Amino acid sequence: QRALAVDGFLMFSTLGPDTLRELHALYRRMGWPAPGAPFVDMHDLGDMLIDAGFADPVMDQERLTLTWDSPQALLAELRQLGANASPTRFAGLRTPRWNARLHAALATLAAADGRIAMSFEVVYGHAFKVAPRVRSDVPTTVSIGDMRAMLKSARKAHR
Fold this sequence. Notes:
Shape: elongated
Number of helices: 5
Helix content: 25-40%
Strand content: 15-25%
Order of helices and strands: EHHEHHEH
Mean pLDDT: 90
Distance between the termini: 51 Å
């Protein structure tokens, strides 16, 4: 917000909450904590833009499916995409036995062609920076008597 000029245009893309839904479901079935921190829903992102002073936010999303030929290839690429920042992440190192269970579980997700598919939800958004609104810090007060008089005059006008 500070770096953008009035009438400036903000564009962004990010991952949405349906990203890696297959991996999240697998972890739930195995009784493990989530494999990553949750992503923000696009509707919430739009609300955050408005709260931050942007106007006319437009949000859209699409789902992409990526495939890998092995659990090892999938995990190697996910490691390159970034760290697991989930607050429920396992604090220590995993054992080779746990790693073998993960690879076996991922292998069960393979399609008939042997490839493992994962969904990625890509969220796109844009909004405009508008001139800041002038806030009035002077309170407006209306007496009870004035309010009653306004109500009486409004009732007479409707008869």
